[in-house]
Amino acid sequence: MNPAGTVKVGIESKEIFSIMKLLEEVDWTEPWIILLLVFHGFITVLAVVTRNHGNIQAVLFCLLLLMVYFSEVLNEWAARNWRLFARDQYFDSSGVFISIMFAAPSLLNCLFLVCQWLWISGTLLIKAKQAQLRSQVQQQHADGSSQQVRGSDRTYRRDTSDFSGREKCD
């Protein structure tokens, strides 16, 4: 209900000129809107806390995308049954409200997960390349090191890069 005590029929799509206009029209004290905000906060915290658990994040990612996919169906149901849980009718046929309040935060969480996965992949790629380069340097150092055999008056050096296995004289 609005301050005058009458039930507001809803927000017309023609009235919405910007996201700010829509957000000004929302009654932020409605329990289901508070619950929706808590839900998005919980999902964001869950995405951050599980940053080292790829399987949990993959499940979370898929669930979020499924929820976004079915947001149109949810919008249609909420438009028909808004009196069961809300004081005002927010759910229009174009789905602006559910897109802003439900789908957009879910997609932002998905974007966060993808960026996190890209960061982890890049870090792992760098570590793998560094390990490969270290291994190559160690291999070259081992191959390039010479084994010197001291004789009575000559020093013989065995060059391991010579595949014949012959010793060379300096």
Automatic annotation (TrEMBL):
It is found in: Endomembrane system; Nucleus membrane. Residues 139-150 have a biased composition (Polar residues). It comes from Limulus polyphemus. InterPro entries: TMEM18. Residues 139-170 are annotated as: Disordered. Belongs to the TMEM18 family. It is a multi-pass membrane protein. Keywords: Coiled coil, DNA-binding, Membrane, Nucleus, Transmembrane, Transmembrane helix. The chain crosses the membrane at residues 32-49, 56-74, 94-120. This is Transmembrane protein 18. Residues 151-170 have a biased composition (Basic and acidic residues).
